[in-house]
Amino acid sequence: MAGKCPYCDNVVSSVRIELVNSIEPSGKSWKSALFSCPICMKVLNVSFDATSHSKHIIDQVTKNITDLIP
Ligand SMILES: [Zn+2]
User: Fold this and answer.
1) Cβ count near 36 (within 10 Å)
2) Which of 9, 21, 44, 70 has its CA 20 to 30 A from that of 32?
3) Centroid of ligand 1 to alpha carbon of 45 (angstroms)
4) Would you kindly state where each structural domain of the chain is located, as residue ranges?
5) H or E segment at 52?
6) What pLDDT score was predicted for residue 49?
7) Is the pLDDT of residue 1 over 80?
8) Using one digit for the tens of pLDDT, what is the confidence trace for 30-46?
């Protein structure tokens, strides 16, 4: 059974997802996923985008290994 939106009280069987930037006070930014109600469009949650972060880690490790090869 699907839950209800806490703002409009409609049953939420799907959510809208948008990729947004989360910006730290230092200015560093990360990709995040913003989940909103498809009916009233209010934000239900914002979550760290693990896929984007995983790619960043793989790219950095690959670069570090490549830099070690003479
Ligand atoms: Zn809603």
Assistant:
1) 19
2) 9
3) 12
4) 16-68
5) helix 50-68
6) 78
7) no
8) 889 999 999 999 999 99
User: Quick one: which of 57, 42, 51, 55 has its CA closest to 9?
Assistant: 42
Identify the burial level of 11 via C-beta atoms within 10 angstroms of its C-beta, where 0-12 means exposed, 13-18 middle and 19 or more buried. Answer: exposed
Token reading at 30: 């990360």
pTM for the model stands at: 0.68
- Ion ligand 1: residue ranges with CB closer than 5 A: 5, 7-8, 37, 39-40
Locus of tokens 């896929």: 51
Q: 42 alpha carbon to ligand 1 midpoint, in Å?
A: 6
For the chain, count helices (H), then strands (E): 1, 3
